[in-house]
Amino acid sequence: MKYNQLLKIIAKGESQTLDFKRTISHKYKIAKTLVAFANTRGGRLLVGVSDDKQILGIDPEEEKFSLDEAASYLCKPPIQLEYFEFENKERKVVLIVKISSSNEKPHSALDKSGNWNVYVRANDKSILAGKQTIKQLDGIGPGSAPKNLTPNEKKLYAYLKEKERITVKQFSKLVNISERRAKRNLIDLANKGFLFLHDFQKEDFYSLA
Fold first, then answer.
1. Position 145 pLDDT exceeds 90
2. What is the pLDDT of residues 88-114, one digit of tens each?
3. Is the pLDDT assigned to residue 73 strictly greater than 90?
4. What's the sign of the alpha-carbon dihedral 66, 119, 96, 8?
5. What is the average per-residue pLDDT within 183-196?
6. Which CATH number describes the domain made up of 144-208?
7. DSSP at 208
8. What one-character DSSP code corresponds to residue 118?
9. Contact at 8 Å (CB) between 207 and 164?
10. What integer pLDDT is reported at residue 57 of this predicted model?
């Protein structure tokens, strides 16, 4: 990868498939991120980059050790990682970690209390998966966005890329249809594996799969 390519990736900022870490200092937290990527569309983790997109640099071998420990012992099933290193003119190293969308979903991450939790990626956050989402994940391979989107679906996907989550009521207002029809459309997309249904809060909501 050329320096300009790396800068372009960093300039895009964090997203559903991209996350920045200064360093791997909290193994439980990184396990949560790895699991979320593997359970959703996969992604890349840039270690040695701050949230404000500054290249700070790291010791790649030290970071790989922490990542391997998290991926092997704090993720169930274990997650395979691919590593790429980049060094800029100031000799600051950025470690690029590739996590593929998994065929062994759902993956869970161990927390400090000894609990195994399932997470998925919603926009630039790793969020806890509800029972319905976990059922959806079981047996679903690497996800992809649907083709030939209807105008309403295009509005929905544009909204979710910016806002992270949507409820039936919000989708109904967004595309000016009844809540009954909005719910049916969202459930249909969830059943096809394009959306996740999160049913563990007071009001159900949906995110991109």
1. no
2. 888 899 999 999 999 899 999 999 999
3. yes
4. negative
5. 87
6. 1.10.10.10
7. E
8. E
9. yes
10. 93
From the number of C-beta atoms within 10 Å of its C-beta (0-12, 13-18, 19+), residue 23 rates as middle
Burial class (CB in 10 A: 0-12, 13-18, 19+), 176: exposed
Query: Which of these, 10, 56, 47, lies nearest to 25 by C-alpha position?
Result: 47
Query: Per the structure block, which two tokens stand in for 31?
Result: 């396990």
Assigned superfamily of 3-128: Schlafen, AAA domain (3.30.950.30)
If DSSP states are collapsed to H, E and C, what string results for 120-163? EEECCEEEECCHHHHHHHCCCCCCCCCCCCCHHHHHHHHHHHHH
User: Are the beta carbons of 160 and 142 closer than 8 angstroms?
Assistant: no
Mean pLDDT of 186-205: 83
Q: In the predicted model, what is the mean pLDDT of residues 26-35?
A: 96
Residues of the chain with CATH 3.30.950.30: 3-128
| pLDDT at 120 (0 to 100) | 94
Domain with CATH 1.10.10.10 in the chain: 144-208
Q: Which residues on neighbouring strands pair with residue 67, listed in sequence order?
A: none
Q: Which amino acid would we find at residue 31? A: A
Structure tokens at 189: 């997309």
pLDDT band at 140 (very low <50, low <70, confident <90, very high): low
